[in-house]
Amino acid sequence: MSQNIFVTRSSMPEFDEYIDEIKGMWDTHWLTNMGPEHNKLKELLKDYLGVPMLDLFTNGHMALELSLQALKLQGEVITTPFTFASTTHAIVRNGLEPVFCDINPKDYTIDVSKLEALITDKTCAIVPVHVYGNVCDIEAIDSIAKKHGLKVVYDAAHTFGVTYKGKGIGSYGDVSCFSFHATKVFNTIEGGAACFADAEFGLELYRLKNFGIRDEETVDGVGANAKMNEFCAAMGICNLRHIDEEIEKRRLVVERYTERLGNVSGIRLNSIQPNVVTNYAYFPVIFDEKLFGTDRDGVCRALAQHGIGARKYFYPITNTFDCFNGRYDANLTPVALHISKRVLTLPLYSELSLADVDRICDIIISCKI
Ligand code: T4K
What we know:
Strand order of the largest sheet: 1-9-8-5-4-2-3
Bound molecules: ligand T4K
Structural class: alpha/beta
Number of helices: 13
Mean pLDDT: 97
Order of helices and strands: HHHEHEHEEHEEEEEHEEHHEEEHHHEH
Number of strands: 15
Largest sheet: 7 strands, mixed
Shape: globular
Distance between the termini: 26 Å
């Protein structure tokens, strides 16, 4: 039996390339606290992502949580429940109240036609999520936010390297936060970044990732420790050298899945949006049990029996989490609820062979009744 296949597999540089990048640390003994690797990666990413300013963090979650804190928000934040726990938790951990807007069934991002009705005099911000590498309706969000004086903080965890209308996706909104987790298109083992254009906001954010320290004798913010260390930054520097090649390999995998599954009735695939250069971050498939004959869970079990680990990103949706003790009504986000019960994200990474993609597709097609 061949080796197990997981939903993804971390990209890593050649061993010697990484060793070359970290060797200098045995001379300097400089391991963290905004060292040379950290600063080098920051500059490289600013160029690659096409953003005015950027800061690095221990992970995408802390970039998001501290960005919300740095904006000094109070009240309600409109967001979507079709996301990873991080998005909702970053809001709640800031003492803010999440108000859940539904998603649209086309690209799974916030349904802008339902957004304005949720705005009250307590609303202070919108936290939309660019899900799976799909881009939110940026223009509509921008005009609603401007009309009502709201901040926009994008959860851009899935959209590393994506561009919209020729501009880096991180340059939209007041802040955009990326994840560089091991499972992402670009990884720094653990890591993340916040991108912004306001230097004053950037300074506040920088202090919050370093305990709220202003200088050696002044601590005037209640911060956290969210600094990216030198080993993670070095991994990022190496991985960034190969990123275009990685994305191209992912494109070939997605192309093969699309060829094999695109015309199967009862299966709906993700489509690439106009004006977007995508990064092929995830391969979500929606199963319509009535047409396909087997439901999402049945397909997931069949794949698992062959050692293939597809994942239900994102099920359950965050407004049904046990930690919220029934405080939110998921029936108010019916599209998110519907999609979350039918979606399966298939294995996708640069080293996934086309023969393995064919094997995965054969198993899925064999589930059709
Ligand atoms: N916002 C959104 C929309 C997000 O999706 C995320 C993270 C965040 C914010 C927060 O960003 P971070 O704070 O994480 O930077 C994973 C990731 O842990 C998480 O980063 C990601 N989203 C989420 C969608 O997926 P799990 O619990 O599903 O991962 P896990 O450990 O089951 O790994 C999945 C597969 O990846 C494994 O089966 C094999 C492979 N893998 C995993 C690890 C840990 C590797 O090849 N190497 C590895 O080191 O959450």
